[in-house]
């Protein structure tokens, strides 16, 4: 069963079965101001400190004006919408609001509030922190009206100090709420909550650093894969016939490249059961003693695995250099071109297959 009542133009609905309350269609609660709500604020103030609770309440008020602004926008003018909102606010215990002045050109507004819950809580506690939540709500509303990125509500009159009302002057501010919180961290008024904020910031930095390290590891893995692909391209081993593989060498063959080339060649001989390996030097323009020694080592290693090595494509200038530096080629099978090497090895492979067939 739903019980309904209208107070100040706002419809209240009470569901007697579910024991829930809705105000203007939105979920709501009734609360004792001088005991429950005042006790809640007092506990928070003891834990986080006065300045922290002011900033927190101001931020909460500022961030909670979406529905207030939508309600104001239903009226033809801002002034009319704000006047309508004051009636709803009064019905919900937010006190009586008065728009004292509004200068759209100078972007300045002055608002008063009487008999609202925030001042009543502080009166019950015998303190005067200022009505920061209400000030934040006004800051959020006029921030949208002025069309600026941030506003601040400066409280200039305090009901908790014996004045008839709380009064706020709202203007655009170059200092954001977040900046004010940051500033508080470096003062003597810092509290355990500030430490918690700092620890949370450290936690986020650690998470961000871990994410950065993950991205770096992924990039390093990608670079490693790319290097492997480049090495494979720099030493391509091609199976040109059954039992015949060819390794074309290009550029300079240094110690590192020679070791990688030998490893890849020996793996290919075993995997493909190759009986012939052609090392083609057509792409080698210059050779020295070290390079020649690397090539001889390749040949010996391949022969140890039972593969015959054939050297092809030695250029005239390279041949002259090899002779002049005294490299013994008498034990190597050398042919003028890769084509000649292929014909030799493929012919041998065919002969071997025929002999096997018999």
UniProtKB/TrEMBL annotation:
Domain annotation STAS: ranges: 234-345
UniProtKB keywords: Coiled coil, Phosphoprotein
SUPFAM superfamilies found in the cross-reference section: SpoIIaa-like
Coiled coil ranges: 195-229
Keyword Membrane among UniProt keywords: no
Name of the molecule in the record: STAS domain-containing protein
Classification via InterPro entries: Bact_StressResp_Reg, STAS_dom, STAS_dom_sf
Source organism: Polyangium jinanense
């Amino acid at each position: 069963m739903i019980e309904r009542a209208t107070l100040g133009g706002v419809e209240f609905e009470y569901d007697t079965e579910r024991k829930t309350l809705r105000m203007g269609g939105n979920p709501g609660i009734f609360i004792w101001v001088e005991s429950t709500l005042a006790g809640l604020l007092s506990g928070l103030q003891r834990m986080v400190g006065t300045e922290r609770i002011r900033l927190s309440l101001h931020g909460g008020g500022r961030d909670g004006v979406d529905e207030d602004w939508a309600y104001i926008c239903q009226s033809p003018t801002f002034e009319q919408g704000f006047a309508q909102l004051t009636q709803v606010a009064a019905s919900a215990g937010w006190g009586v609001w008065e728009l004292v002045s509004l200068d759209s050109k100078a972007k300045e507004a002055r608002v008063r509030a009487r008999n609202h819950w925030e001042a009543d809580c502080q009166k019950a506690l015998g303190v005067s922190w200022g009505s920061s939540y209400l000030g934040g709500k006004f800051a959020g509303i006029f921030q949208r009206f002025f069309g600026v990125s941030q506003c601040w509500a400066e409280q200039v009159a305090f009901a908790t100090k014996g004045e008839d009302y709380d009064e706020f002057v709202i203007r655009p501010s170059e200092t954001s709420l977040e900046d004010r919180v940051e500033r508080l961290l470096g003062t003597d008024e810092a509290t355990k909550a500030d430490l918690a904020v700092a620890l949370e910031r450290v936690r986020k930095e650690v998470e961000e650093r871990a994410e950065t390290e993950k991205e770096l590891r992924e990039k390093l893995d990608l670079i490693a894969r790319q290097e492997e692909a480049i090495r494979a391209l720099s030493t391509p081993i091609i199976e040109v016939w059954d039992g015949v593989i060819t390794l074309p060498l290009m550029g300079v063959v240094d110690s590192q490249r020679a070791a990688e080339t030998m490893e890849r060649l020996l793996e290919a001989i075993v995997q493909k059961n190759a009986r012939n390996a052609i090392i083609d030097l057509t792409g080698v323009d210059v050779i020295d003693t070290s390079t020649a020694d690397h090539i001889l080592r390749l040949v010996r290693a391949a022969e140890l695995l039972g593969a015959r090595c054939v050297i092809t494509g030695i250029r005239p200038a390279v041949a002259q250099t090899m002779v002049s530096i005294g490299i013994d080629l008498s034990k190597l099978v050398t042919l003028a071109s890769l084509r000649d090497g292929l014909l030799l090895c493929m012919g041998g492979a065919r002969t071997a297959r025929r002999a096997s067939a018999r």
